[in-house]
Amino acid sequence: MCRRQRLGTVFEMLAFLFNQIDDPADGPMNMGLDQAIAESVDRGETSSVCLRLYCWKQPTLSLGYFQEHQSRQGHVASSTLPFVRRNSGGGAIIHDQELTYSLSMLSNKAYRGADRDVYLKVHQAIRSAISDLSGIKLVRFADSGLKPLFDDKTFLCFERRTDEDLLLSGYKIVGSAQRRVGGALLQHGSILLQTSRFAPSLPGLSCLSGCGVDKRILGEMLCEHIGKSLAVKLVATQVSPSTLTRAEHWAQERFANQSWNFRR
Amino acid sequence: MKPEDLLYAETHEWVHADSGIATIGISSFAAEQLTDLVYMELPEIGRQLQSGEEFGEVESVKAVSPLYSPVTGEVVEVNSELTGKLETLASDAFGNGWMIKVRFSDDSELSKLMKYDAYQKQCAEGND
């Protein structure tokens, strides 16, 4: 269902925003919701662009899809946290002092692999949102002049570097990863706001800048800028009952299941 | 194998069918898009696949992409060397880059796949 709204003489596509910052779910349900929303996009049951902003009911570690669960042993600070395996790639994220987003959108079926254009647009929007909110200027890793890290398969996502990562003072503040879900693209991303005691080596935005950042206000700014960047009008709504049912199914059958989380 | 002799799925898997065995891989077009491959997962021998079902996954630059089986049948052989030599996909997608062999029984599934010219057209349109 691709809805369009007339705004003067300009047609702007309506996209859905699921703002769940104040209604945090646990790890399996957060991943189940993202999977179910991406499937809804793929099936044409919702807008072709859906943005979800969310937090986590308790500090949780998410592993990248291909990471081995035993690699957790090397990161002592997060060893007590529950974990869930994402279906997107990349490294582990400590979901504690950060804001998570997922973007599900129809993608060109003729392509495989990463959609760099989506990375670029969304990260540019995040840079603008943070700049407008606090005056802080994040830099793309590709533009930072910094050299690639020697070991780019380190455990934590925020210790890895790819071109579109956003940095402040050389530290990664924003990272994202993608997965193809049929004809849809699911992009997960994390904005590190504060230093977490479960990942003390990673300074957050506030620690580096001295500026406090409110998640809710940042969420509003993100909607405005991501909407602009993707040329859509984001409208806040609730996840439909059928999508919610499917999310619960995925949460229970996959993301809370040991055969999934310990699969490698 | 010559690309011109193969059949193609919309999702870029190629198929070479011979005596009830379908050899399956992904096209060089798809392999080029999967830059900087870091991981690949292929199925176990003996797994039953439905046409259109995921049989594996690849990760490139933090993006995970599923691999879809174009035919229904049983996995009878897996190119296990490929997961340790992912660069083969870029250099020889239609040869040593094959992924699995599936014993299939429904020939009609092959007729739903594209011939080389139609697939080339799809790739060209995707680049527009």
For this entry, what is the oligomeric state of its chains? Answer: heterodimer
Major sheet characteristics of chain B: 6 strands, antiparallel
Terminal CA distance of chain B reads: 28 Å
Radius of gyration based on Cα positions of chain A:
18 Å
Number of helices of chain A: 6
Task: Please state how the strands of the largest beta sheet of chain B are arranged side by side.
Answer: 1-2-3-9-8-5
- DSSP strand count of chain B: 9
**Structural class estimated from helices and strands of chain B:** alpha+beta
- Strand percentage of chain B lies at 35-45%
Query: Nearest-angstrom radius of gyration of chain B?
Result: 14 Å
Main beta sheet strand tally, sense and closure of chain A? 9 strands, mixed
Name the overall outline of chain A: globular
Percentage of residues assigned to helices of chain B: 10-25%
Low-pLDDT segments of chain B: none
* Percentage of residues in helical conformation of chain A: 25-40%
SSE string of chain A, helices as H and strands as E:
EEHEEEEEHEEEEHHEHH
Give me the number of helical elements of chain B.
Answer: 4
